[in-house]
Structures are given as C-alpha cells and as structure tokens.
Amino acid sequence: MRVLIAGIGEHKDFGLKSLQAAGHFVGVMDLPHRIPVDLCDWWRASDGSVDSMLEAADSADFTWDAVLCWAELCTDAAREVARKLGVPGTRMPEGRFRDKGLMHGRLRETGLPTPQLGVARTLQECEHLIEGRFPVVVKPTDYGGSGGVQIVTGPDGLGGAFDAAVALSASGRVAVDRYVRGTEYSVESVTWAHGEHQVLAVTEKHLTRPPYCVEVGHVVPATLPDSDREALEAATVTVLDALGMEAGVSHAEFRLTDKGPVLMEIAGRPAGDQIPRLVELTTGWNLYRAELAAVAGERIVPGTPAAQCAAVRCFVGDGQTPFTYPVTPANASAPPLLGTLRELRYTTGEGTVHRAPRGLVDRLGHGIVAGDRAEVTAALAVLSRGAEVYRGE
To answer: Which of 32, 104, 230, 302 is buried most deeply by CB count within 10 Å?
Structure first.
C-alpha cells in the first residue's frame, strides 16, 4: 500500500521502518525539520493545515491508499485530508480525541467518572470552576505532549498556570481538572471495527514530581495485580465505546485510584515516547501495522516477543548540574547495560546546565533497554542514575 503519514511528529523512525518492513511505500508530510528524509519513500513539507497537506499530497504523481497521522496536533486535519482524498483514514468522531473539553463532556454525558471541573476562557471562569478546591490541574484543551500542563496547589499559582495554558491553546480554552491521586498508567489498544476493541499492553509511567509531572520513563508490561490490570482494560474499552472510536489505535492515560481507574485523557493515535517499540519487544504487537490494518478493514496477528520486559528512560536536567552522559564506553560494555541496551540517543552535548523539565521539549535524549524484569530494573537504575521513581501517587 501507499501510506501517507500526514503529520509525523518527533522520533518516529520505528514507525516508518515498521511499515516499510511490511512492504508498504511510505510518504510523509510535516514541517521540514521533523521529516527523516532518509527513511521516507516520498516526502513534502507542510505546515499542518488541511490545505497545505492536500496541496502536498496532490503533488505526487500517483494516488494514496491510506492516510495516517502520528502527530497529536494534526490528527483531525489528517482525517479531513483522508476524507477529501477519498481514501481510508482513522475513524472517530471529530474533536473527541483531541479536545479535552469535548472528550470529558462526552464522558460526563455517558455517566463515566471524569476529573474535569469544566473549561474556561478567562481566569475568572477558572476561579469560578475551582471554588477554592485545590489542588487542580490546568491544561490547554487542544494541545499535546504535556505542554502547558501544571498542577496548582493554591490561588497564588493559578494566574501563571492559566496564562501558560491559554497561550498554547488554539481555541483559547483551558481545561480545569481536580487533581487525582493515584499511580499513572497508559493503555495501548487497537480498534478493529466499531465496538471491537483489543487492549495490547498496559504501560507503567515514570514522572517528574509536581507541578509539571513530565513523563520521563515507561515500562512495558506494567507490574500490577491482575484485578487492577483488568480494571484498566475494562475502563479503556468503556471509554472507547463512549467516545465512538471506530477504527485505529489509541493511547489512554489513567490514574489508578482506590475507587478504580480515572481517565486523564486519550489520544486516537499511536503513543509517543518509544512506547510502540516497547510494546512490540514484549508482546509482538506492532502498533503502527495494527493501525494501518484496522484503517484498511483488515486484521493482523502479533509476532514473537523478544523480551519479557522493556523500558525507556528520557534524560533530563535539574537546573543546577552540568549534563553528562549516563551511558559511557565503560558502563555500556558491562552488565546491566551489556545485553539489555537496545537504543541510545543524546540530543545535546555534555557540560550544559539544563532547566528541570516543564514539558517534552526539555528532554535531552533517551535510552531503551529490554530483557527480563530484573535486568531491566538494574539497567534503568543506571540510565536514571538512581533517581527516585515517581508515579503520580
């Protein structure tokens, strides 16, 4: 098939290689600096708008068979491009998997638990929604990658958090959520057809401490009791039904409370942060191939898992210490990294002091490890330099 990725985002080499290895011709449209041109069969620059992407797609001297999107900000536009080209794309109601106001409004309509207090356009509306009930989480309704998300513990911090969130919101709307205490997980799923959802993996998430709670690590599969795993899987299926997912893959983020799972948000696209790589290593399921199959009205089966456990650790600064590489020629050549390290990337040089992370833009690289759980745990301790594991408790 000729598959057009209308918005690829950052660090999606694994997705491109996955589709090409399955025999597909893969084209990409996005901002030029995001496109790994040496991995594409065809590419064009685009600003992410429907008109720009249609112009780029039409410049090819052949027709496309399907349109996908791996960049959160382009997902609705990509589905419109697929519709206008008359080819298959992911199928879900417009806005419900992008706009957190629409998303949680729909959940409330169907009687599902939601942390959202409401949506505000002004600081005064924010204050009215909160009514003095802190802590709360303030976030743009329609951004991505944890940008502009902040936990606010009292009235003094509300104005700055609102300004940061509204500055990133294309619609000028800010979601206000009550703060939910509980460990954080994500659930990766494929929807083959309307009402036919299959959970492929539950992911353990490692965060920085409040107020930003930036994701810095993921482990697949998550370690948790069967009853909690089943509750997360059941909650995911219920949410997908409520929001009307018809075909594609999804990435749902939950806090697991003493009363059960509470959805933070859900995206109608493959997860970022190399989670699809971890899922394939441990389950054999390739999220990118599953997405394309579902969109095309087909089904696939998983391959053979390569490891019992896999994890990614993102490197970040602390605002004080000059950054040094956690993996060196010396420790890479001995256990626990020897035999477990699958990928290593640095996006900055050593010696620079980087601020403590406030979003995904503050990451300085990542390492991926795979093996049995004990090996992965030991390797993560090296990658994180023994830093505490915070999970949103």
So the answer is: 104
180 close to 171: Cβ distance less than 8 angstroms: no
Which residues, 6 or more positions from 235, have their beta carbon under 8 angstroms from its beta carbon? Answer: 187, 252, 254, 260, 261, 263
Picking from 72, 54, 76, 73, the residue whose alpha carbon sits closest to that of residue 4 is: 54
Quick one: tokens of 32? Answer: 């030029």
Residue pLDDT, tens place only, 247-301: 999 999 999 999 999 999 999 999 999 999 999 999 999 999 999 999 999 999 9
Structure tokens at 339: 């035999």
Strands 365-371 and 260-267, bridge-based pairing: unpaired
Residue in the block written with tokens 């394309």: 292
Cα-Cα-Cα-Cα dihedral sign, residues 66, 271, 277, 192: negative
Residue 387, pLDDT score: 86
Provide the whole-model pTM.
0.95
What interhelical angle do 13-21 and 275-283 show, nearest 10? 50
* CA–centroid distance for 266 within its chain: 9
159: Cβ contacts below 8 Å, ≥ 6 apart: 123
Cα–Cα dist 70/275, whole Å: 13
Is the torsion defined by CA of 328, 334, 336, 337 positive or negative? positive
What pLDDT is recorded for position 341? 98
User: Do the beta carbons of residue 118 and residue 112 sit within 8 Å?
Assistant: no
Backbone angles phi, psi at 241, to 5 degrees: -65, -45
Reported as a pLDDT band with limits 50, 70 and 90, residue 47 is very high
Angle at 247 between CA 245 and CA 249, to 5 degrees: 85
User: Reduced to 3 states, what is the DSSP secondary structure of residue 137?
Assistant: strand
CA distance 373 to 288: 25
Ramachandran class of 288: left when φ > 0, alpha when ψ lies in -120 to 50, beta otherwise: alpha
Selection from 321, 323, 331 nearest residue 350 by Cα: 323
Question: 31 in helix, strand or coil?
Answer: coil
Cβ atoms of 356 and 317 within 8 Å: the answer is yes
pLDDT tens for each residue of 202-259: 999 999 988 888 999 999 999 999 999 999 999 999 999 999 999 999 999 999 999 9
